[in-house]
């Protein structure tokens, strides 16, 4: 037992030494003694498993499981990454991986959908932010780590997987069968809503998101010869991603001040990111759309633009992930994903567990466009012997006036934008109102 305890103690110190230059590069000092009592318990459990478990267990597997347990007990986002998981993480930030296209977290032993990624099997199957995945191919997820769950859902493109879903408002669990695909995430999409008004959707923050955003804005300006009078920045169901990309996106619209700051225990975790002098929209108003699937890096952008009064935030309260994860390589093949700090908006707000409150909250709903009325309401122009606009009105003018109250069904167009996407339609209305009133948001 003493030899085993000594070996575990050496392993613990060795793990700290092996990660030199990282936040856990620290050998216990006299004031931070090793917890010998707890290590004895660990050694006793290790010994019992080795000698009495029904089947032989590899030492490496036991130690890895112990490390996983340490990290999974901290918070939902810290984890041990083995060779495959570490590779998947590196691939995921580049924008291409195999799987379902879904961002998830752990809540009360179940896997919670933070957001489906646009144009992926998860989004097409109807998975929604807030859904709980309780089974994967009839295997309960309770007791599985987050990384194990993600690895199970990923697989060879073309293969099928069945998820059992628990959804608020639905009386009983239901199954969704999805076909895995090669996920190639285009993090930025854009289009012109109406002349002068642009729309940019950021679905995920990747290494090239800032550059892709600037290219999208250049394209929108080219489509609108008079420039942009306003922009809708859609961050709904954006689960986050790379911190530097969120900073770059925020800096695109700000000219000064703090974008985000981070605070942790380590000296190198206290960072402040500041905006540069250029605003690519030159002060044109912005509306940021958010919802419960807006998380992490996307909350940084919404919070920065809101605190600097650079944009109006519309939608529903965001997810509330205000922590920073640092990837700490252990060796060439494995790493720790460790929560090392919390981030704060420019005004000093921490959004951890609370999220960003929108300036204008929108209820979940839809707009049903009614058909043109059969009976047209009467107006002044329909009344007998109404006064003409001009005294010298001709008979032709009179005839046209009499027809003015009729509805031209060939030229009238329903508000398709609001009926297809109610929050987006409301965002466009706000941009129009700001321009009509001649207002420009301060920044």
Give the helix/strand layout:
Elements: H1 2-18, H2 36-52, H3 59-72, E1 79-81, H4 83-94, E2 96-99, E3 102-107, E4 110-116, H5 121-125, E5 132-136, E6 139-140, H6 146-153, E7 160-166, E8 174-179, E9 181-184, E10 188-194, E11 197-202, H7 209-223, E12 230-234, H8 243-251, E13 258-264, E14 271-274, E15 286-290, H9 297-307, E16 312-315, E17 323-329, E18 335-344, E19 360-361, H10 395-402, H11 416-420, H12 422-436
Parallel strand pairs: 11-12, 12-15, 15-16, 16-19
Antiparallel strand pairs: 1-18, 2-9, 3-4, 4-5, 5-6, 5-7, 7-8, 10-11, 13-14, 13-18, 17-18
Helix pairs in contact: 1-2, 8-9
Helix content: 25-40%
Strand content: 15-25%
Number of strands: 19
Ends apart, CA distance between termini: 65 Å
Summed over residues and divided by their number, the pLDDT gives a mean of 83
**What's the CATH architecture name of the largest domain?**
Alpha-Beta Complex
| CATH homologous superfamily annotation of the largest domain | 2-enoyl-CoA Hydratase, Chain A, domain 1
According to CATH, what is the topology of the largest domain? 2-enoyl-CoA Hydratase, Chain A, domain 1
- Sheet/helix structural class: alpha+beta
Let me know the largest β-sheet: 6 strands, antiparallel
What is the 3D shape? globular
**Backbone CA Rg:** 28 Å
CATH class of the largest domain: Alpha Beta
Tell me the number of structural domains. 4
Number of helices: 12
Low-pLDDT runs: 7-25, 392-396, 400-414
């Amino acid at each position: 037992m003493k030899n085993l305890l000594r070996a575990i103690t050496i392993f613990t110190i060795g793990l700290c030494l092996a990660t030199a230059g990282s936040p856990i590069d620290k050998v216990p000092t006299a004031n931070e003694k090793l917890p010998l009592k707890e290590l004895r318990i660990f050694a006793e459990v290790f010994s019992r498993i080795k000698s009495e478990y029904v089947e032989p267990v590899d030492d490496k597997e036991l130690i890895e499981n112990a490390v996983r347990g340490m990290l999974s007990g901290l918070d939902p986002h810290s984890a041990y990454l083995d060779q495959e998981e570490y590779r998947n993480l590196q691939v995921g930030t580049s924008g291409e991986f195999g799987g379902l296209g879904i961002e998830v977290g752990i809540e009360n032993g179940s896997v919670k959908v933070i957001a489906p990624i646009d144009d992926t099997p998860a989004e097409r199957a109807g998975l929604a932010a807030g859904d709980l995945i309780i089974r994967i191919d009839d295997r309960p997820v309770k007791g599985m780590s987050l990384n194990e769950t993600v690895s199970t859902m990923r697989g060879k493109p073309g293969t099928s997987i069945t998820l059992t879903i628990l959804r608020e408002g639905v009386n009983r669990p239901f199954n969704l069968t999805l076909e895995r695909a090669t996920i190639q995430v285009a993090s930025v999409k854009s289009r012109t809503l109406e002349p002068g008004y642009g729309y940019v959707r950021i679905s995920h923050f990747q290494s090239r998101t800032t550059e892709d955003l600037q290219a999208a804005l250049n394209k929108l300006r080219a489509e609108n010869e008079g420039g942009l009078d306003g922009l809708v920045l859609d961050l709904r169901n954006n689960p986050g991603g790379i911190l530097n990309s969120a900073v770059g996106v925020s800096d695109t619209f700000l000219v000064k001040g703090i974008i985000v700051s981070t605070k942790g225990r380590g000296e190198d975790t206290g960072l402040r990111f500041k905006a540069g002098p250029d605003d690519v929209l030159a002060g044109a108003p912005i509306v940021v759309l958010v919802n419960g699937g807006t998380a992490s890096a996307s909350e940084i952008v919404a919070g920065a633009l809101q605190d600097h009064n650079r944009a109006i935030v519309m939608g529903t309260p965001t997810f509330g992930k205000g922590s920073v994860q640092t990837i700490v390589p252990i060796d060439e093949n494995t790493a720790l994903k460790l929560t090392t700090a919390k981030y704060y908006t420019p005004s000093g707000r921490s959004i951890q567990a609370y999220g960003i409150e929108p300036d204008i909250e929108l209820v979940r709903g839809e707009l049903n466009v009614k058909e043109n009325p059969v009976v047209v309401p009467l107006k002044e122009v329909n009344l007998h012997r109404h006064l003409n606009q001009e005294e010298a009105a001709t008979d032709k003018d009179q005839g046209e006036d009499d027809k003015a109250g009729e509805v031209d069904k060939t030229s009238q167009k329903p508000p398709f934008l609001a009926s297809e996407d109610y929050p987006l339609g409301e965002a466009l209305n706000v941009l129009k109102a700001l321009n009509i009133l001649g207002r420009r948001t301060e920044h």
